[in-house]
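Bumping with the actual sequence this time:
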Amino acid sequence: MARYADDLSLAHLLADTADSISMARFRALDLSVEAKPDLTPVSDADTAVEKALRATLARTRPRDGVLGEEFGASVAAAGPGNRQWVIDPIDGTKNFIRGVPIWATLICLMEGDQPVVGLVSAPALGRRWWAAVGHGAYAGRHTAAATPIRVSGVRRLADASFCYSSLTSWEESGRLDAMLGIMRSVWRSRAYGDFYGYMLLAEGAVDAMVEPELSLWDLAALIPIVTEAGGTFTDLTGKPGPAGGSAVASNGKLHSDLLHRLG
């Protein structure tokens, strides 16, 4: 843990900055929303948060690169290196602009292609989750009120609470029938969506969360939290890590069954 202690402290500082900006704009009557080239929405809060976090990282980690959803990749001022911060300034922008409190800032430190520090801050929920490799996973309002978190022990899909993003995305990926089959098999299914299902998984409140298409900034911060909580996080092919552009996350005990059914 000593190896990442300073990085985790910085991640909390970044989250504090993000929370102050995003909460000031949440449900603001003058919130500005535009459509990006891919037709997804972006608010002035998204861009303001990412700019602020990039400015802090430029001062405090000049040797680290940055990848953000709104402004892309930038090489460190000191030149290319092995470390990169990956930021989603507001994960759940559609919720944010509609006044739904389920949105968060996602912050990850990657070494090479491996996420080693992850933090998810959801200030409208009064909740934050974080982890670093070898450190375990925690949740709370802040570090002084941290509680260790752990995935569930559920062993059968028939007993599982199953979480997903949306059926439309699974239909577009050609796996709708497989998804409906899982939903008929499990004890309970709910579409919490975005970061939230993964955090509920890490806390043991749900047992699996799946999404067919994701960008690196959508999932990098989630991986250390889920895996340090004892869970398993792969893409749809079963490969660990964030490179696959999809997510199958579980308490580990259900993973093989899920991959088989989704394959």
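The tokens above came from a reply further down the thread. The chain has two domains: 2-148, 157-262.
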